[in-house]
What we know:
Layout: H1 3-12, H2 25-47, H3 54-92, H4 102-111, H5 114-122, H6 128-138, H7 146-153, H8 161-169, H9 174-194, E1 197-199, E2 205-207, H10 212-240
Antiparallel strand pairs: 1-2
Helix pairs in contact: 2-3, 2-10, 3-6, 3-9, 3-10, 8-9, 8-10
Amino acid sequence: xxxxxxxxxxxxxxxxxxxxxxxxxxxxxxxxxxxxxxxxxxxxxxxxxxxxxxxxxxxxxxxxxxxxxxxxxxxxxxxxxxxxxxxxxxxxxxxxxxxxxxxxxxxxxxxxxxxxxxxxxxxxxxxxxxxxxxxxxxxxxxxxxxxxxxxxxxxxxxxxxxxxxxxxxxxxxxxxxxxxxxxxxxxxxxxxxxxxxxxxxxxxxxxxxxxxxxxxxxxxxxxxxxxxxxxxxxxxxxxxx
Length: 241
């Protein structure tokens, strides 16, 4: 089959929610939410109305946990990269020695000279090539744990991110938000790296319990954190202009 025919065949069978279309970080997260709902719907159909077949399809719920953690990772990677290009332009405007955060400055200097960066930014030239180099470095790190997310946001001078998120939840403290996210990531790791199996003292294996109620909580928690996080980051970027 010729390449053109192959591409057309793929296009004809593309997912209905446009998985191949370019989109902003938050839009991509919303598409991931649709996929999460699809997995939950599949579980409900397989488990039956009373959940009588739960034991035979509980791994669908486990896949939702893994998908939620990956969605958080993907969102923050995309959002940071969206923000860095704007941040660099603001910070280098009419300055020969811009005051960039040390972690961002060190990362940039590994990829390109500071004078070249300033020249591109001040002449309003695309910094896409520079962004692409930074992206390769940034995407090497996993952005699921609260600490790693905060460290990445420090590069755009957004400090106390989790405190700001907690303030907008009105129900959770900063520590509770971070603890719940860390718990979600720990559960994801047990599923991905251990098959969600437990061992007793006699080295007998059994699956950890997982329920639909638990999954509904994690879905709501993840959506809330990203919704608020999107607002917090956007407001911060506006304040820089």
